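ugh ok fine here u go
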Amino acid sequence: MNTQEVIQLEDTFQIPTYRKYPVALVRGEGCYVWDTEGRRYLDFYGGHCVTLLGHCPPRVVQALQEQAARLLFYSNVVYSPVRARAAALLAEMAPERLRHVFFCNSGTEANETALKLARAWTGKPGLIALERGFHGRTLGSLAATEPIGYRKPYLSVLPPTHFVPMGDLEAVERLLDRHDDIAAIILEPIQSMAGVYEAPADYYRELRRLCDRHGVVLIFDEVQTGVGRTGTFSISEQYGIRPDLITLAKSLGSGVPVGAVLVSDKIAAHVKPGDQGTTFGGGMLAMAAVTATLETIRDEGLMARAPAIFERIRQGVADHVVAVRGRGCLIGLELDRPAAPVLARLREQGVLAGSASHPNVIRLMPPLNTPDDAIDAFLETFLQVLVNQPETPTV
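structure:
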């Protein structure tokens, strides 16, 4: 099929929940993908922050092929060597005192599980989340997702949540002093979809202190920042703190759907059979992908590459954008004009990048193993597009 035939079929038979790029992809290798007509694109979007090792990383592909020939699936009712290896390796790479894991299928499931664990452990229903935060589209996670456009149709069935501005410790402290029913604070350390915003490191350390004082669970939603994308396995390591729960997904399986919750010793000690469950979470193919992904990151020292990629891009664009935000391979470029025409022009020139809810922000999520020549190719194309894409006049 050609691109137009693919578009017609999908638009006919899928419900229209996404505005899609007019691109039909059929193959990927490293930081490049190819469409049905054979055109190559430099992919700095990564299927929405997923392909941390690029497309079709060889060790992951080999692990999936071998596991598919051996056993496609069995549920958690039995033990599994491939699941055991994945859990042990994840625990080895996780921060100290967060070495218990629950496997699921996606980021929103991981966040749902974390919220359930926090409420069960504290015996409280209340929740604090951050304005502009995004945690998923299923109902439990949606309750912590602040932008009203996501929540409005479902407000009558969502659990109540207190939303506070990112960086505002006084707002958090006031809520904790006035409400004794708060189970957890959940936040994205870097708010990616909002436009790649991060608070000063002291903010996260003070949140840890407030949670300890009030007996509140601190949840880091690292669905996008985790698995080494920012330079450490968890961004919490860069702040010098330990959350009680960390949620992971996106990059964890190199494109195979998988999510996980890293659980602290104190909360794990209170979990008993029946408190949570999943049929497909921890399935054999996903666990093979997790193990191969983590081994590749560890054995090739790829987390150390993240700051160098950030700095090379920052230096290349600094004189041409309003701001460069983020860490490692999660980068927000704020422009002096709307991002949508620039993104469209980049796509025409063979580069895929991401948008944000901030209309002037372009998000870049390149793989950890992106070579310098690919970064330079992006920079050359990006700067050419900016020069040839006039600023939108101020009215």
